[in-house]
Specification:
By secondary structure, the protein is mainly α. The protein contains 7 helices and no strands. It is about 80% helix and about 0% strand.
Length: about 180
Amino acid sequence: MDDKEELIEENRQGYTFPKGAMWLYIGSFVLAGLLQLAFDWGEVTGEGDVQTTLVIMLIAGLLGGMGLFVGTVIEYALILYPSRWIAKDREVYKYDIWAAIFYSGAIGVLLAFLIAQLNVSDNLFVSMTISAVGVGLFLYFYYSGIEKPQHVKRAVTIVQVGWFILGTGLSVAGDMLLSSMAL
């Protein structure tokens, strides 16, 4: 083993699931939801019963939490397995992928909340910019973890850029379709 492989092996020992990053991720969604609720409380309650509104919001929050969990697991799988395939290596540092998803997602949800408050969230350019920032943040947090071999870094970068290009293409196609339907 050369020095770099020994350093990687030493860094890997005692490495566990990033619980702190997960709680930050969940907290950012809760914070954004509470802030949105605070800004829109008059519109949410309207003239209806406040208790009924709170029960509906609780149920919506629980369903949203389950959706967040499922979506995050799918995002993890769509990063992990293509990265393994491209790198031709089983070890792609899954805990760093989780940490990068959590940290970049937490910042992304707060950015999306701020953009929504500015009423420009329907702008395709703004949406693509936020997606690009999310990809950049993901790669930053992934690279800032433990030292990884170059072929693994390259594989994760290819996967992230590929998903960004695919998502951008689908967004543009969807926007063109909706504009042609005059919706």
